[in-house]
């Protein structure tokens, strides 16, 4: 079961170029807790849960090689990649490469992680629906060595 929603974009000459790493460009918001991430991850809130909206919308930005720990969202999670390249993996399944424009729908209660490739930044919008069901349940650090 893949969480990645296929996009119908074609690769342009600009997309084929070697990525340019501009870490300063993604350093917006607050530095996330090192207790739940490997490397530096920046979080910028846009919409927070309140009496009207039972959801959250934030931007997460990963420095090269940074990634979350394994975690679960009781109500699921939707990621919309806005910059760079990264990875997403559901526990027990193949590693998925993700890039700008990809939409990843992670079902409720599924253990997964996401983060940047080692030579590029990656940022995505995070949509957390039905937040009243609970926030992230953090698990172990990802034991991952990128072969690329």
By CATH, the architecture of the domain at 37-138 is named Sandwich
Helical residue percent band: under 10%
Classification by helices and strands: mainly beta
Relevant CATH superfamily of the domain at 37-138: Jelly Rolls
Q: What ranges have pLDDT less than 50 throughout 5 or more consecutive residues?
A: 7-17
Shape: globular
What does this entry look like structurally?
The chain is mainly beta and 148 residues long. It has helices at residues 13-16, 23-26; strands at residues 4-5, 30-31, 37-38, 41-47, 55-62, 67-68, 71-72, 77-90, 96-99, 103-106, 112-116, 122-129, 137-138. It has a domain at 37-138: Jelly Rolls. The two termini are 24 Å apart. It has 2 helices and 13 strands; from the N terminus they run βααββββββββββββ. The longest helix is centred in the N-terminal third of the chain and has 4 residues, at 13-16. The strands form 3 sheets. Strands 1, 2, 4, 5, 8, 9, 10, 11 and 12 form a 9-stranded antiparallel beta sheet that branches. Strands 3-6 form a two-stranded antiparallel sheet.
Provide key terms for this protein:
single chain; 148 residues; mainly beta; Jelly Rolls; 9-stranded antiparallel sheet; 13 strands; 5% helix; 42% strand
């Amino acid at each position: 079961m893949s969480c990645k929603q296929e996009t119908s974009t074609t690769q342009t000459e600009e997309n084929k170029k070697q990525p340019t790493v501009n870490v300063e460009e993604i350093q917006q918001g607050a530095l996330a807790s090192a207790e739940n991430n490997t490397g530096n991850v920046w979080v910028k809130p846009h919409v927070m849960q309140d009496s009207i909206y039972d959801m959250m919308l934030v931007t997460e930005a990963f420095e090269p090689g940074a990634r979350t720990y394994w975690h679960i969202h009781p109500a699921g999670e939707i990621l919309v990649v806005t910059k760079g390249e990264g990875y997403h993996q559901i526990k027990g399944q193949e590693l998925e490469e993700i890039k700008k424009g990809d939409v990843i729908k992670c079902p409720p209660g599924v253990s997964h992680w996401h983060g940047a490739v080692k030579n590029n930044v990656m940022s995505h919008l995070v949509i957390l629906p039905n937040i009243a069901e609970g926030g992230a349940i953090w698990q172990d650090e990802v034991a991952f060595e990128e072969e690329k």
